Amino acid sequence: MAEHETAARHRTPENPGSEVGAFLRRRREQLAQRWADEPLFRTVFTVARDEAVEAGRVVVDALAQVAGHGRVEDPADPGFTVVREQLSRMAAARARTGLTPSRVSTEVDALRVPADELLVAELPDASAEHVRACTTALTVLMGTLRLVVMETALSEGEALIDRQRLQLLEVATPVIRLWDGIVAVPLIGTLDSARSQVVMETLLESVVDQQARFAILDITGVPTVDSLVAQHLMKTVAAVRLMGAECVVSGIRPAIAQTIVHLGLDLGTVITRASLADALGYALRRLGADIVRAAPGGAQAR
Amino acid sequence: MNDDFPRPGAVSVPVLRLGDVLLVTLQGDLYDGMAARLQQDIAQAIVDSRVAGVVIDISGVEIVDSFLGRVLAEIAAHARLLAARTVVAGMRPAVALTLVELGLTLPGLRTALSTEAALELLGRADAARPGGPHRDAR
Amino acid sequence: MSAAAAGVEARLPIRSDLDLVRVRQHVRQASATLGFGLVEQTKLVTAASELARNTLVYGGGGEVEATMVGDGRRAGLRLTFSDRGPGIPDLERALSDGYTSGVGLGLGLGGARRLVHEFAIDSTPGVGTTVTVTSWTARAPRPRGGF
């Protein structure tokens, strides 16, 4: 820390950074009270004003620490670490109410005004240059705070997208119980590695949940099968077998069958059927159920 | 810390006889010595009681590595020599996926979803060969 | 190493088959704590079991070092298995799929490699072998509480 202060002293003789830091520590309470009335705090901490004030104190403390390090322009300063989580949740809460990122940014910027006023009021006798140096440092510091908020909000957004991507994968892989002991997964669209993984896991889980003796993977809706996808299919078949069930792959269109032959892949151990209906018929017969067509007149053709 | 774990030989896997089937329930984390002893115990039990089938319930097993996988395969192979058939029941999905990724698909091993399904599998095969020679269910 | 190492979390000896159980239980616990999914946990524990057994059987014993790592977005678990055994003269062959034959050096190496995200091996005949594997949690962190 001594190192940072020395560095700051070298840059500006008056060291406005640590002066702003000292100011923040002195005016911590007033500033937190003023900020509690600003939209960013007021609208997030709606239950009690005390909560907003406390949240304000935490932010003031963090800023005072960063300023004390003489690194008012550094969003990576360790002083921000303790408030990062809180700031990100505040930004996320504002974003949920429909605020655009730039509006959130404006709300953070609005915190600068009361801080500025308090600072100037403290320096009635200082030289114009001194006042300017201090307000500049404060402005830079508040700009850095704004950066930190936007940064955390952005990474929060990325995490949200990741989560939604995973959820979408799961939604896109419905497991259907076709019959007592028979489940099916109709696959639609391109299979990449991540999706294949989800498909495998979902199918295996459902085999356990439903105690299904047969699992049907229907790939009618899959446009292409490359060697990687074929490999995933074979792994699924092997894993289902290890669990004590049987996997049937249905809906291999002629073009795909040709690709599989071209790729030199051996699906020899995999049970395949032309359509989902054929696969269901196969599984039903293996379970000992017979499918009969009702004859005209209601009598069963048997 | 050493006392948290059973010493080799202090614990063995219970081998239960159920009609003409041996029921073996594996649970938790087996150390290698225990798995190897299990292999001997089962072979001995087949000889002693002349059972026709062995069901190994692994629904309580969290991981099967290549060692345990090979032990299971060898139990089945050995039992076959003694005219008994082996069914491994209840393998967890995560274990199955891992074994496949590991490259161990255990083609010679008969599997079932649960102990009940395994007994049914052995029973049905029995019914299919009334006094006759061994016939496979598959 | 690319990620910022966060310090060694544990160092376990590999001297007996009971130690293998300890290694598995430790890796299970550490990966669960880091938020690995069940399948990823199982894969990592199985890989650890294979590698620890290699250390024991072919390396004549050694140790494993577990380190929690992070790359800013994901958490990871890094395991380093080291022994002062005879080393592996033909790494390429050891890594090829010899697992079905069930004999020879490097048993389970190729399989273990497929179960983890990163795999590195360093072996010098007469000096010893070090295998380092790392797996990462799925990218999306768990939804946080609050608000």
TrEMBL record, chain A:
Q: Where is this region: Disordered?
A: 1-20
- Please give the InterPro entries that the UniProt record associates with this protein: Bact_StressResp_Reg, STAS_dom, STAS_dom_sf
Checking Gene3D superfamilies in the record gives: STAS domain (3.30.750.24)
Any one Pfam family here would be STAS
What range(s) does the STAS domain occupy? Answer: 172-283
UniProt keywords (A-Z) are: Phosphoprotein
- Output compositional bias ranges, type Basic and acidic residues: 1-13
Any keyword Cell membrane?
no
Identify this protein by name: STAS domain-containing protein
Which organism's genome codes for this protein?
Streptomyces griseoruber
From TrEMBL, chain B:
**Annotated Pfam families:** STAS (PF01740)
Protein name, as recorded: Anti-anti-sigma factor
List, alphabetically, the InterPro entries matched: Bact_StressResp_Reg, STAS_dom, STAS_dom_sf
Q: Which domain of life is it from?
A: Bacteria
Q: Where are the transmembrane segments?
A: none
Enumerate the spans annotated as STAS domain.
11-122
What Gene3D superfamilies does the annotation carry?
STAS domain
Annotated CDD domains: STAS_RsbR_RsbS_like
TrEMBL record, chain C:
InterPro entries (UniProt xref): HATPase_C_sf, HATPase_dom
The superkingdom listed in its UniProt entry is Bacteria
Entries under SUPFAM superfamilies matching the protein = ATPase domain of HSP90 chaperone/DNA topoisomerase II/histidine kinase
Mind telling me which Pfam families this protein's record contains? HATPase_c
Outline the extent of the Histidine kinase/HSP90-like ATPase domain. 39-139
The protein's name: Anti-sigma regulatory factor
Q: Which organism was this protein described from?
A: Streptomyces griseoruber
